């Protein structure tokens, strides 16, 4: 017979199980091991297919994924006839962030910052349904000619579309740059330090003792135009199975216990060779809703190992001149006044 006590125990048990379920404990039990079982459609070696697409040949296997963007604004002349184009900023921005874009154009995104280094900056935007903001963007585009916008709704869960629009744009309209920096519009970037970093990532920052530095200098990225660099703050982490998480993923979306190693999406730099390989790899990589994971998947399929540098901060590093001396990028600059203030100070000290 069920006594009150037994009922109570059962009820507690049920609650306990519900809580475990909610926190994804059971989901973890059904995950499979990334290390031994990882597969993600297209299931097969794609290197040859990528090379076939890159050389305009018909690939042996037809693509399984195609991002058919219709560019409403393409700023297609941005990189045209630019010789020795060193760096392109692809700034992931939201349509209504007019003031952030203005601040970026006049600070780290300024194209004429250095007389001897060619830099270009474009802003990646999705669409909004309201006519007022579309009109404002059109005016902004006419003034600055630096907006890239295609037909997808601007939304957090559409960030992969924004990123792949950037890859598509670069491959189609701007394949002549050495390096591409993808960065959010709420970042502070030191363009000067970024240029130093891409000159020789393994020797950056240069406060290492000279003996060690010399050893690292054996490999000079600058001389090797074929280098496949994909760099920033690298994460090796597990999927969130907690049901309330913004980053929750179900087993059917992704069944493994670990993500492929990836660079956090707020700021990362890719060389031309990496960008083109990864772009064409997207034709053989099923869409995924989180952009940093998707880019990580592309790199993994291309066998490009992400390169970690802790001078890319995915959270905000509190401001202080010394701490910002070698910093490449930091999150937390959604306030355009603060951004310009910090940038002006760092520039005066020759660190921006
Ligand atoms: C954008 O337009 C292209 C070409 O018209 C179309 O194939 C594609 O499905 C559209 N994309 C979205 C997300 O609506
Ligand atoms: C992503 O963009 C597509 C195409 O505009 C749209 O249909 C879809 O609703 C968007 N997704 C989200 C989550 O906003």
From TrEMBL:
Enzyme class: transferase
TM stretches of this protein: 9-30
Keywords of the record: Glycosyltransferase, Golgi apparatus, Membrane, Signal-anchor, Transferase, Transmembrane, Transmembrane helix
Compartments, as annotated in UniProt: Golgi apparatus membrane
GO biological process, one term: protein O-linked glycosylation
Main localization of the protein described in the UniProt heading: Golgi
Gene Ontology MF, one: UDP-glycosyltransferase activity
EC number: 2.4.1.-
Source taxon at top rank: Eukaryota
A GO term from the CC aspect: Golgi membrane
Membrane topology of this protein: Single-pass type II membrane protein
UniProt xrefs under Gene3D superfamilies: 3.90.550.50
Homology family: Belongs to the glycosyltransferase 31 family.
PANTHER family xref list: BETA-1,3-GALACTOSYLTRANSFERASE BRN (PTHR11214:SF349), BETA-1,3-N-ACETYLGLUCOSAMINYLTRANSFERASE (PTHR11214)
Name of the protein in question: Hexosyltransferase
Source taxonomy: Eukaryota, Metazoa, Ecdysozoa, Arthropoda, Hexapoda
């Amino acid at each position: 017979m069920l006594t009150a006590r037994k009922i109570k125990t059962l009820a507690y048990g049920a609650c306990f199980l519900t809580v475990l379920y909610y926190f994804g404990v059971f989901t973890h039990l059904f995950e499979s091991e990334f290390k031994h079982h990882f597969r993600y459609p297209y299931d097969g070696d794609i290197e040859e297919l990528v090379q076939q697409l890159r050389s305009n040949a018909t690939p042996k296997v037809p693509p399984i994924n195609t991002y058919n963007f219709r560019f409403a604004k393409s700023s297609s002349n941005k990189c045209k006839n630019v010789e020795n184009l060193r760096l392109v900023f692809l700034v992931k921005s939201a349509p209504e962030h007019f003031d952030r874009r203005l601040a970026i154009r006049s600070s780290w995104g300024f194209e004429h910052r250095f007389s001897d280094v060619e830099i270009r900056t474009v802003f990646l935007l999705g669409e909004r349904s309201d006519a007022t903001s579309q009109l404002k963007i059109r005016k902004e585009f006419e003034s600055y000619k630096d907006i890239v916008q295609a037909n997808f709704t601007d939304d957090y869960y559409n960030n992969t579309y924004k990123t792949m629009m950037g890859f598509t744009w670069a491959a189609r309209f701007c394949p002549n740059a050495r390096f591409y920096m993808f960065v959010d519009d709420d970042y502070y970037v030191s363009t000067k330090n970024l240029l130093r970093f891409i000159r020789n990532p393994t020797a950056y920052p240069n406060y290492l003792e000279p003996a060690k530095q010399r050893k690292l200098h054996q490999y000079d990225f600058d001389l090797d135009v074929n280098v496949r660099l994909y760099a920033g703050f690298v994460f090796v982490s597990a999927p969130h199975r907690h049901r309330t998480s913004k980053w929750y993923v179900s087993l059917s979306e992704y069944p493994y216990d670990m993500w492929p190693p990836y660079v956090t999406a707020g700021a990362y730099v890719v060389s031309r060779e990496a960008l083109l390989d990864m772009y064409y790899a997207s034709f053989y990589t099923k869409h995924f809703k989180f952009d940093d994971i998707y880019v990580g998947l592309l790199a993994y399929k291309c066998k490009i190992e992400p390169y970690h540098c802790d001078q890319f901060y995915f959270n905000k590093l509190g401001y202080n001149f010394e701490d910002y001396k070698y910093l490449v990028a930091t999150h937390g600059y959604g306030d355009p006044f603060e951004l310009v203030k910090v940038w002006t100070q760092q520039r005066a000290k020759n660190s921006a």
